[in-house]
Design goal:
4% of the residues lie in helices and 36% in strands. The protein is built from three helices and 63 strands. The chain is globular, with a radius of gyration of 26 Å. The two termini are 51 Å apart.
């Protein structure tokens, strides 16, 4: 294959990893007790069958004709057209699967479909802004890790493998998974879905995570990339409108034969979906397995190691709107090609019924069929394993074939009946033993008898996504999950797993900095709880080493400005705790009863800036506590007064995410007036009270957007001077997501200037220097004296969303919490 792509993206040599400190990360392999999922109602089934059956009737079980061809040049051009359609010690929080971050999709889109062109426009706008300030430097944590979506072992270099990280790019280890260095440029999208390695040493990377929501709909990938120098340089290689990549496989006998499962996106706007094969020219892509509708995409692939012409592929029909999701449909199915992808046959001959299959439809086209995973035994390619899920979470079936997929028999039950099969759908078979296999689930599930019985392989973090045996080291396995990377040198035996010591990728929602100590930091991490830089007995020293103090998905974190030994953390849906350190011990106090019927995943809590004993909590009503969260009083009208009702089409019917929309998303008490509070909602409503909740005024007819309110900042010296930030994208070129009032809301002005036309996640105002900072999905920007002359802050910050920014109490340093590449810092710019 010639390496003549015109648009090469290069970056310097990977940064060197520091010597790892002694491992102090705790094992997070606690088995989660999952709530049994609700059975899919007949009404919901009927609804989706009605809309989709007609589009799929023609698909049939046999695809005897060659699939329609869609040739897409690696440089982005197209040739031809596609035919057809397109008080106790803190315990680990339960929840699940401690990962999906479903609410992010609602937040980023603010109820509107987001198109790839809007993402491209926003990225271009961000890059066009001038830089100001110095250089960003990574802080940490480096010892915690975060979600790994895929990995691949390099058989030609000992102890070497690559990992694809959700929101964190590609990383390389040369010491068997102890430490990692970046193998992906910081100025490219960091959202990764898949990685593969050809026998010629070519690396293939698919951008965009196919696990829903994978950080939200707006974190589109921009296609497939390839590297011929071990990740030092990458070139975009087509499929730029695929949204997300579920899997890439390379024929071990022919590295020029590459298959890609293009997953699309949940809104249906991504145009390239299905299974693609690299063309003979090595640059174009042919769509070899079409999808029956625009809600179906490719999700998994497997090759017969003894026959390169035999390919297995899984399609997945899944969609969502602003507040509801259905992760299954009649477009889902398992297929096999025996001629290298030219023709495909649907595999659905299941003899018997799996006990988890409440519909009895097995692998047939049905509204109850969700995500499918497929694996082939390397030492016996006739042995094929398949796992499937249902639309709302529970497993649907596990099947075993001994004739290459011509027939299947139900096996045991690798997953939980209340599980999250739409989050997993992966299996891996021991290359030396066809009866020894692992299945991805909340826990790592292992079978030694061909899937008849299953048990947990303990000692790893929850939520498994990637695995591979090292072909050069007997019994060595690498595992990727929501806690990063693990290695076993005992063939995956329970308790044999060792966690990486240096893996500097995390997805951070919020950040807190002590007012009197710029090194005392806390952060809430997706999948990895709440973490801090100090311990009960010692202050912060090495800022790369953080330790956990709260479980579940970490969200809001706070440090009392009057006493840094009092601090807070919340896990998903407002499960919040106050912690107090004293005399070398820590005491935890769960928040008292609050009064909301609906609470968003990332529930807002805020300390009163003039009295830190007072805090506020928002659900669909506003609660106030005067005793640091022990008790609460409702200070807003009941019901839907502040938020409005949940629209019927946004009322989630699943068992895990109901009652999380139409809620308060931000609360901003004024420092100079203890009775004045501003708040915003996910339904786009903005309110103010000047009498501590007795009366409320909504800002309507002021020209403000009606979109998700992300952040509100009240000038600490003037309660009438307020900034508000909105989420979502809008049509056209003009940004409109940062607004200001100087008269208490009497009038509002758009001060977005030339900011990217994209969500602004957080605002921070430095009253000392009169500088406003905006954290966005495309970097951090700042503006002085409200002149709308925004600049990009600093150089070197990876191209991943920034969810929070904080200024230290001495006004010297700014910290940024990224959703994929941990926490970074930079000196405060001079004007």
């Amino acid at each position: 294959m010639t390496d003549d792509h015109p648009d090469e993206t290069g970056h310097g040599a990977p940064d060197s990893a520091p010597e790892p400190a002694a491992t102090n990360s705790r094992q997070r392999g606690t088995t989660l007790r999952l709530i049994l999922a609700s059975v899919l109602s007949l009404a919901i089934v009927a609804l989706f069958v009605h809309g989709l059956t007609a589009a799929n009737d023609a698909s049939g079980n046999e695809r005897g004709e060659a699939a329609a061809e869609h040739v897409h040049d690696a440089d982005g051009g197209e040739e031809g057209e596609e035919e057809g359609e397109e008080g106790e010690e803190e315990e680990e929080e339960e929840g699940g699967p401690t990962a999906p971050a479903e609410y992010l999709t609602q937040k980023f889109t603010s109820g509107h479909d987001v198109k790839p062109d809007q993402i491209k426009q926003a990225r271009t706008q961000a890059r066009a802004l001038k830089h100001g300030g110095g250089n960003w430097g990574q802080v940490g944590p480096t010892n915690v890790g975060g979600r790994v979506t895929d990995l691949v072992v390099d058989p030609n270099h000992p102890n070497t493998f690559y990992v694809a990280v959700s929101g964190g790019g590609i990383w390389r280890s040369i010491d068997a998974g102890k430490t990692f260095t970046p193998a992906w440029p910081v100025d490219q999208t960091q959202t990764m879905g898949a990685i593969a390695l050809g026998s010629d040493g070519t690396l293939w990377a698919g951008t965009g995570e196919a696990n829903p929501s994978g950080g939200g709909l707006t974190f589109f990938g921009d296609g497939v990339y390839r590297s011929t120098d071990g990740g030092a340089h990458w070139k975009q290689w087509g499929l730029t409108d695929s949204g997300a990549i579920g899997k890439i496989v390379v024929d071990p006998a022919n590295p020029k034969r590459v298959f890609v499962a293009a997953a699309g996106n949940l809104s249906g706007t991504a145009g390239q979906r299905g299974i693609y094969r690299l063309g003979p020219d090595g640059k174009s892509w042919r769509l070899v397995l079409k999808t029956p509708n625009n809600t179906t995409g490719g999700i998994d692939l497997a090759l017969d190691p003894a026959n390169g012409d035999r390919v297995y592929a899984a399609l997945w029909d899944h969609k969502r709107n602003n507040g509801a999701r259905v992760y299954g449909g009649v477009g889902s199915g398992l297929f096999r090609s025996d001629d290298g992808g030219d023709h495909w046959k649907r595999l659905e001959n299941v003899i018997g019924t799996h006990p988890a299959d409440t519909t009895g439809t097995g692998l047939k086209s049905d509204a109850s069929l969700g995500r499918i995973g497929v694996a082939v035994a390397p030492n016996d390619p006739r042995r094929v394993y398949v796992v499937s899920g249902s639309p709302y979470g529970p497993d649907k079936g596990f099947y075993v074939s001994d004739d290459g997929g011509d027939t299947f028999k139900p096996g045991g039950r690798p997953g939980s009946s209340g599980g999250y099969q739409w989050w997993f759908g992966r299996m891996w078979v021991d290359p030396k033993n066809e009866n020894h296999l692992f299945s991805a689930d909340v826990s790592l599930r292992e079978s030694k008898d061909g899937g008849a019985t299953w048990s947990d392989s303990n000692g790893v973090h929850s939520d498994q996504h990637a695995m591979q045996w090292d072909p050069k080291v007997a019994d060595r396995i690498y595992l990727g999950n929501d806690g990063g990377i693990y290695r076993s040198d005992d063939n995956g035996a329970s308790g044999s797993w060792v966690h990486a010591t240096y893996a500097p990728w995390n997805q951070s929602y919020h950040l807190a900095v002590a007012a009197d100590d710029p090194n005392r930091l806390a952060s809430g991490l997706q999948d990895n709880g709440s973490v801090r830089t100090w311990t009960n007995t010692a202050g912060a020293s090495d800022l790369s080493q953080w330790n956990a103090y709260g479980g579940g998905d970490g969200h809001e974190v706070l440090i009392d400005p009057s006493d840094h030994d009092i601090y807070y953390e919340c896990s998903q849906v407002g499960v919040c705790t106050r912690h107090e350190d004293s005399g070398g011990t820590s005491h935890s106090f769960r928040f008292g009863q609050r009064h909301s019927a609906r609470i968003t995943t990332d529930a807002p809590i805020v300390l009163d800036p003039s009295n830190p004993s007072v805090l506020y909590f928002g659900g669909n009503v506003l609660d106030r506590s005067t005793d640091r969260g022990a008790t609460f009083t409702q200070i807003s009208p009941p019901g839907d007064y502040l938020t409005g009702p949940v629209p019927p089409d946004e009322d989630d019917q699943g068992p895990f995410y109901a009652n999380q929309y139409a809620t308060i998303t931000w609360i901003a008490p004024a420092k100079t007036d203890g009775n004045t509070i501003y708040l915003g909602t996910d339904t786009g409503r903005l309110w103010k009270t000047t009498d501590l909740g007795a009366h409320w005024t909504e800002f309507t007819g002021k020209g403000l957007p009606t979109r998700w309110v992300n952040s509100i900042v009240v000038d600490p010296a003037d309660a009438d001077h307020v900034y508000v930030a909105y989420s979502g994208y809008r049509e056209g070129d003009t940004a409109a997501n940062v607004w200001e009032t100087t008269n208490g809301g009497g009038s509002w002005h758009n001060i977005s200037g030339k900011l990217p036309n994209a969500p602004v996640e957080m605002l921070t105002y430095d009253q000392v220097s009169h500088q406003l900072y905006a954290a966005t999905d495309y970097g951090v920007f700042y503006d002085k004296n409200d002149k709308k002359n925004w600049k990009r802050l600093g150089n070197g910050l990876p191209d991943t969303p920034v969810f929070d920014i904080k200024i230290t109490g001495d006004h010297r340093t700014i910290y940024a919490a990224t959703f994929g590449r941990s926490v970074w810092r930079i000196p405060v710019p001079n004007g």
